[in-house]
Amino acid sequence: MKIIRRDLVANGPGSVKMVPVDSDDLWYAYNLIAPGDTVLAVTVRKVLREVASGGRDAERVKLKLEIKVEVADYDKVGSVLRIRGKNILENEYVKIGQFHTLEIEQHRPFVLRKVVWDSLALDTLNQASDPAASADLAVVLMQEGLAHVILVGRSLTITRSRIEASIPRKHGPAIAGYEAALNKFFENVLQAFLKYVDFNVVRCAVIASPGFTKDQFHRHLLLEAERRQLRSIIENKSRIILVHTSSGYKHSLKEVLDAPNVMNMIKDTKAAQEVQALKDFFNMLSNDPARACYGPKHVEVAHERMAVQTLLITDDLFRSADIPTRQKYVNFVNSVKDSGGTAHIFSSMHVSGEQLAQLTGIAAILRFPLPDLEDIEM
């Protein structure tokens, strides 16, 4: 995220002008914009004009509108943030109080104004504008006849390409067609790899599959790189890692993120820290259940007793339209940090965030056992 102008008071009012550079930035903007904020941006609106013949003519007019946010919606596929609300800026085409939907896209500046920039909003803003934090991971999840090219960003997991092919059986008379079909499939995966994996952005690329498919594709990739002189692959072949998974489907991404050789490459990134924190929580839950809890009520009681060492919470909980609820969770995160604990805010667009959401979206690892928590109703 490119910050152009910053004019705000911590825990007070202010505005920030920013430009989203990639889809991760749009996700950060989605987490920053809350109902009641105002957003100023250039937009296009269809207006009706009277024409000399007495009829009406519709034309699209470019104008600057500021709307008071009622609903924000993030379109992951189209990489667009849609913000709906009432116009508060006098304009010859749009009256004050009329509804309008602003579409925020990559490389389009907008100004966000808040009555209160709380600590969570400031943290999100700092994370979004930190250039070192955009350490992505590219993953090619595959099995014979199926491959997914997935990019794991700071806060988003995006499937960039899905490649499917019908591959005949290896045995019997179809064996001649097997080699040709497999090579064609590998060529399609290679084209997707070249299109979506940019080694200037990603730390490493992982090729993952059950059996030997990953090794066969890795060999194909390096041979073709030498033959066609593909510099991006030749110069970065040490950053291509092979990992065993149970399938080529997207749910196996969890196994990729758990692999030690992948964790070493991305250990200081947000995604890796979330995966590790969730792993620690599940280990604690199975080995010493009195030192792990989940659900808002249990975690709050544990914090009242100063027992929370690590808090795990999804960003979904901060997007509540009810401002007191949002503020409650912001204060809760601050309180845990003030008492010496650590807080991990999980992105609901990551695999780890989806897992945490299944456990109510909030969980904690405790400093000391609290066996009586089980008696308290969730």
Mean pLDDT: 88
Task: Count helical runs.
Answer: 11
Q: What characteristic shape results from the CA principal axes?
A: flat
- Following the backbone from N to C, one meets helices and strands in this order, namely EEHEEEEEHEEEHEHHEHHHEHEHEHE
Oligomer: single chain
The low-confidence parts are: none
Side-by-side strand order of the widest sheet: 1-2-7-3-4-5-6
Rg from Cα: 25 Å
Give a quick set of tags describing it.
378 residues, alpha+beta, five-stranded mixed sheet, 16 strands
Structure in words:
The chain has 378 residues and is an alpha+beta fold. The protein is built from 11 helices and 16 strands. The strands form 3 sheets. The protein has a 7-stranded antiparallel sheet with strand order 1-2-7-3-4-5-6, with helices on one face. Strands 10-9-8-11-12 form a 5-stranded mixed sheet, with helices on both faces. Helix 1 runs antiparallel to helix 2 and helix 8 packs parallel to helix 11. The two termini are 39 Å apart. The model has no long low-confidence stretch (mean pLDDT 88).
